[in-house]
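sorry for the late reply, my laptop died twice this morning and i had to redo everyting from scratch. anyway the thing you sent over, i finally got around to it. pasting the sequence first so we're on the same page, its 466 residues, then the predicted structure underneath. double check i copied it right bc i was rushing
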Amino acid sequence: MKNLLGVDVGTTSLKMTLFDECGAVLQSVTQDYLLEASGDRVEFEPERYWQIFSEALAQIAGEFEISAMAIDTQCETLIVADEKGNPLRKAIVWLDNRATQEAQEIEAHFGRQRIYEVTGQPEVTATWPACKLLWLRKNEPEVFAKVKKVFLLEDYLIYRLTGEFVTEKTLQSSTIYLDINKGIWWEEMLNYIGVDSKALPMLRNSGEKIGESQGIAVVLSAMDQVAGAIGAGVVCNGVVSEMTGTTMVIFVPCDQVPAYRPDSKIPCHLNYNGQYCLLSWTPTAGIALKWFKNNFCEGFDFKQLDAMAERISPGCDGLTFLPYLCGSVIPRYNPDARGAFLGLTMEHTRAHAVRSILEAVACMLKENLDYMGISCGEIRSMGGGATSDLWCQIKADLTGKRIVTLKNPEAACLGSAILAGAATGVYDSVESACKALVKTGKAYFPQDVGYEKVYQRFCALEDQFL
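ok and here's the structure:
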């Protein structure tokens, strides 16, 4: 029996889960951490990423034999290093927005259409590593001059494990310096931002074994959303997933890069199999509920908030929440957008506020599905939001789609473990492994409870305030 380790390095926590080859969980470790945030800057010490990873690995390896591992991470967290791989400064986390001016410069130089047709990204934002690197060149020239290796987070951990300076293409597909049609670096963009392609890792495919560490085969995974989709069994067209965690992400597999549309903000990324996927995301989802809990319901846990909200009728007696605590992205890009409760009266309670948050996130899900033109009968639901029966039912009612949860809540870890197993011969293919290992949980069917007017009110308020 082979044991396969899936590692998911998220924005504020690392999750590491060991599975046997039948998909049973043998052990799981979670390590939380706090980012260093100040204004539009969000950073973290690269060595801390490695320490946190090493501590979790030692805990599991001390009890079990591990045959193979794969690590998925967020895409855009940037680590620059010298020739020996020693970081030259703190990691610039994907949430960091310091490079807004550089994003505008890149967009003005290349134009949105050209950038989309090469990279699949319809907008240029400060998030993308190309913008961060241009900012470094302009603002920290003494650091930039020493850069010999440019890592994203998965690359850095792989390098520390194996000494191999490699990367995989799904992770790089939002850098805006990868040509997702040809699967090669976009030299014209690199020349503009002043980065030599020799400073970038060797491009490989997801699911390739690239070395060993402590007798464990190390396999390239995929960016976190792709790994999560694999762990949810979303490996063919016609099945869609949504993840409600800190943010909300909708994942849709597709065969080709859609034609450019000036009015579209839907990014297209490379998928693990060399095909493509559409990703729609909102910067605020579960974090809005956590914010409300921490500041206005300190004595309650999330289950108690659910029970409280369940007593309130759909529509919250006219109360609507706009969940834009961190701006809005898709379908309405406005980084200056702010959240609000609208329609408050003396009759409203904090229970109304809680339910209005749940409904607002469900409205965002419907709005994004409609914007993407997605036709599907089932949505696989992941993340912390999937643990709430009430939230899942609200999503089903608002979207008119069947919402299905998963028995294994750590879909990204399972997806990475599947990639590790497929690369080392444990499974014939990723697809056959998904068929055997991915188990669905509860299903929530849409009910007619009068949400049409609620959604119309939500969209009308967006029109007014975004």
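The chain has two domains: 3-221, 232-466.
thats about all i looked at so far, will dig more tmrw
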